[in-house]
C-alpha cells in the first residue's frame, strides 16, 4: 500500500466515523480546498518575501497544518471521484513538460502560450 492510499484510508475513516460523507459532494470538497488554501494564504498576506520566510520559521506548525488541510481534502476528493492521484499527477507533469520545454521555459515565469 503506498503512502497516499494509506493516508487516504485514515482520512476516510475519520470522515466515516463522523458520518460526514453525506456532506462531501464534489462541490463542497472543491469549496473546502479553496477555503483551506485561503487559510494558507492568510499567513502571508501583506508580507514581503523576506517577512514571509521569517514568519514560516516562527510559525512552521500552523503553516504545516494548513498545507495538511488542503492535502487531506484533495486526497479525499480524488478518492471520491475515483482519481488515481499519483497517475493523474504523473500524466499532468508529462503534459506540463510538453507545455513548458526547458529550452523555452527555464528561468521564465511566462505562461506556456507566451513562451
Ligand atoms: Mg485550516
Task: Quickly describe the structure.
This protein is mainly α and 115 residues long. The protein has 6 helices and no strands.
SSE layout and pairings?
Elements: H1 3-17, H2 26-42, H3 49-58, H4 60-80, H5 85-99, H6 102-105
The structure holds magnesium ion.
Overall number of strands: 0
Provide the CATH top-level class of the largest domain: Mainly Alpha
Which molecules are bound in this entry?
magnesium ion
- State the helical fraction: over 70%
Rg calc = 18 Å
CATH architect. name of the largest domain: Orthogonal Bundle
What kind of assembly state do the chains in view correspond to? single chain
Describe the model:
The structure is a single chain. The protein is 71% helix and 0% strand. The protein has two domains: 81 residues, MazG-like (Helix Hairpins), CATH 1.10.287; 32 residues, no CATH class. α1 crosses α4. It contains six helices and no strands. The relative contact order is 0.11. The N and C termini lie far apart (40 Å). The site of magnesium ion has 4 residues, from α2 and α4.
Keywords for this entry:
single chain; 115 residues; mainly alpha; Helix Hairpins; 2 domains; binds magnesium ion
Amino acid at each position: 500500500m503506498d503512502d497516499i492510499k494509506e493516508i487516504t484510508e485514515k482520512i476516510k475513516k475519520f470522515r466515516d466515523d463522523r458520518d460526514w460523507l453525506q456532506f462531501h459532494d464534489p462541490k463542497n470538497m472543491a469549496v473546502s480546498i479553496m477555503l483551506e488554501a485561503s487559510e494558507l494564504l492568510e499567513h502571508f498576506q501583506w508580507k514581503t518575501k523576506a517577512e514571509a520566510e521569517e514568519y514560516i520559521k516562527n510559525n512552521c506548525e500552523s503553516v504545516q497544518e494548513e498545507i495538511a488541510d488542503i492535502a487531506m481534502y484533495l486526497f479525499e476528493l480524488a478518492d471520491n471521484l475515483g482519481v488515481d492521484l499519483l497517475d493523474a499527477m504523473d500524466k499532468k507533469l508529462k503534459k506540463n513538460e510538453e507545455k513548458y520545454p526547458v529550452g523555452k521555459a527555464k528561468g521564465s515565469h511566462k505562461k506556456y502560450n507566451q513562451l
